[in-house]
Design a protein that fits this description.
Length: 155
């Protein structure tokens, strides 16, 4: 649920920029970086689950590794001029919040997590297979967002 909410916020920010031409020019912000948000949420959870298999004390180290990896992905988005620093930071913070909500819920339960490592490996495998593939959402946002903004009376 938290990942879906995070993705929805990214999508809404893209619709408002693409269709309504809304931006915060003072901080050079147009939309939340979806790549960074997904990286921060997925890799943080995967790292937390993988190292969390060794005990509750280890999941924080795994999560920190995921956050660092996501930060590197965010930097790459700035370097290739796909996003601004403000867009990447907002995506990273949103992804970190999504991951934190899940990891706190998982590791605050008073039970052993025998399948946590399996879940972490599965999450990494799926994200690796999906890397570089584009969902049709971007084209849909570009094509239909002006209708949404027109319906809302914005732009």
């Amino acid at each position: 649920m938290s990942l879906a909410a995070g993705m929805a916020l990214v999508g809404i920010s893209k619709v408002f920029y693409a269709g309504c031409d809304l931006e915060i020019s003072a901080i050079n912000f147009r939309m939340i970086s979806g790549h960074t948000m997904l990286s921060a949420s997925v890799y943080t959870v995967a790292g937390g689950l993988l190292l969390g298999h060794f005990g509750k004390r280890w999941y924080g180290l795994g999560a920190a590794g995921g956050l660092l990896f996501a930060a590197a992905i965010g930097v790459s988005r700035v370097i290739i001029n796909a996003h601004t620093i403000a867009e990447v930071v907002s995506g990273w913070l949103l992804g970190a919040a999504v991951a934190t909500m899940l990891l706190l819920r998982v590791f605050n339960q008073p039970r052993k997590m025998p399948r946590a490592a399996f879940a972490g490996v599965a999450l990494l495998a799926v994200s690796t297979l999906a890397y570089g593939r584009h969902a049709p959402f971007q084209a849909m946002i570009e094509h239909y967002s002006w209708w949404v903004c027109r319906g809302l009376g914005i732009g």
